[in-house]
UniProtKB/TrEMBL annotation:
InterPro entries: THDP-binding, Transketo_C/PFOR_II, Transketolase-like_Pyr-bd, Transketolase_C. PANTHER family: 2-OXOISOVALERATE DEHYDROGENASE SUBUNIT BETA, MITOCHONDRIAL (PTHR42980:SF1), 2-OXOISOVALERATE DEHYDROGENASE SUBUNIT BETA-RELATED (PTHR42980). Gene3D superfamilies: 3.40.50.920, 3.40.50.970. This is 3-methyl-2-oxobutanoate dehydrogenase (2-methylpropanoyl-transferring). Its cofactor is thiamine diphosphate. One of its GO terms (molecular function) is branched-chain 2-oxo acid dehydrogenase activity. GO terms for biological process: branched-chain amino acid catabolic process; response to nutrient. It comes from the Bacteria. It is an enzyme of class 1 (oxidoreductase). Its EC number is 1.2.4.4. SUPFAM superfamilies: Thiamin diphosphate-binding fold (THDP-binding), TK C-terminal domain-like. It comes from Maritimibacter harenae. Residues 4-179 form the Transketolase-like pyrimidine-binding domain.
């Protein structure tokens, strides 16, 4: 085991995969010589050469389209989009080509590629550097969607994603990149720490896709979340005085519905938490699944806590994020019924 930040864990996962399989390549804007805007690919070009880790033109459409072609012919491209907000020009290639290739070719071609994107807020990036678009991908059949909350899962899930025979969207919470986050939102001058924050396994250690993790066991309510909001949830539960079970979904698709149902059937109450906007967010799907599968065990309506339904507010960034106070109030509300 080695202590790593999430950036270091992601970088290590790339290196492990590239060392084990010559077909794994890394591509994107500034990922080669510079090592990525967040340094997640630093040193890979020097170690593996320019043919396996290389810079691309500033064209997300071209980057993803090229990667789809490479994947169809047997390579395993790992694409970095500098910010999730930049993926829209490439969205057509992700949805119309990558996600559909296996099906439109009747299995003759597959698309074993990973599209990595920093997601969420925490760096004062405002409207064009802070979005959380996971619901745009979970809606698309043929894609898998992953959101790690800690360095160990970042490495293990990325290695699992690279091994997948079909496309995986890998969303990396920027607020967790460089160190621990204690879950509190009143840190506008220090959005992250510079110290390592997690024990990460050495070598080829995979975290299976589709398996949620119980971060805290509880008996009175269930809190479903992922990414940065895992830490917000844990901070809120400390203050709530309620025995809440906190589940880190880790993979949004495939979703570990068995773990969700087992927890909600036990507790009878459920709060769903995410950073993305409320309307049509992934929390709506979670609430619908819980209602459908756990209806006769529910003691209260499922509540959602999310970001505002507004373009990302730069000046109010740390109020836009669901903080422990908002989550605690939601827990108190479900306990009243």
């Amino acid at each position: 085991m080695t202590r790593m930040t999430m950036i270091e864990a992601i970088r290590d996962a790339h290196a492990v995969a590239m060392e084990a399989d010559d077909d794994v390549i890394v591509m994107g804007e500034d990922v080669g010589f510079f090592g990525g805007v967040f340094r997640c690919t630093a040193g890979l070009q020097q170690r593996f050469g320019v043919d396996r880790c290389f810079d691309t033109p500033i064209s997300e459409l071209g980057i993803v389209g090229t990667a789809v072609g490479m994947a169809a012919y047997g390579l395993k491209p790992v694409v970095e989009i500098q910010f999730a907000d930049y993926m829209y020009p490439g969205y057509d290639q992700i949805v119309s080509e990558a996600a559909r290739l296996r099906y439109r070719s009747a299995g003759e071609f597959t698309c074993p590629m990973v599209v990595r994107m920093p997601t969420g807020g925490g760096i004062y990036g405002a409207q064009t550097h802070s979005q959380s678009p996971e619901a745009l991908f979970t809606h698309v059949a043929g894609l898998k969607t992953v959101v790690p909350s800690n360095p160990a899962d970042a490495k293990g899930l990325l290695l699992a994603a690279i091994a997948e025979p079909d496309p995986v969207i890998f969303l990396e919470p920027k607020r967790l990149y460089n160190g621990p986050y204690d879950g509190h939102h009143d840190r506008p001058s220090v959005p992250w720490s510079k110290h390592p924050d997690g024990e990460v396994g050495n070598g080829h250690c995979i975290t299976p896709l589709g398996k949620a993790r119980v971060m805290r066991e509880g008996t009175q309510a269930t809190l479903l979340t992922y990414g940065t909001m895992v830490h917000v949830a844990l901070a809120a539960v400390e203050e709530a005085g309620v025995d809440v079970e906190v589940i880190d979904l880790r993979t949004l698709l495939p979703l570990d519905l068995d773990a969700i149902v087992a927890s909600v059937n036990k507790t009878g109450r459920c709060v769903v938490l995410h950073e993305a906007t409320l309307t049509s967010g992934f929390g709506a799907e979670l609430a619908a699944q819980v209602q459908a599968e756990c209806f006769y065990h529910l003691e209260a309506p499922v509540l959602r806590v999310a970001g505002w339904d507004t373009p990302y507010p730069h000046a109010q960034e740390w109020d836009y994020f669901p903080g422990p106070d908002r989550v605690r109030r939601a827990i108190e509300t479900v306990m009243e019924d």
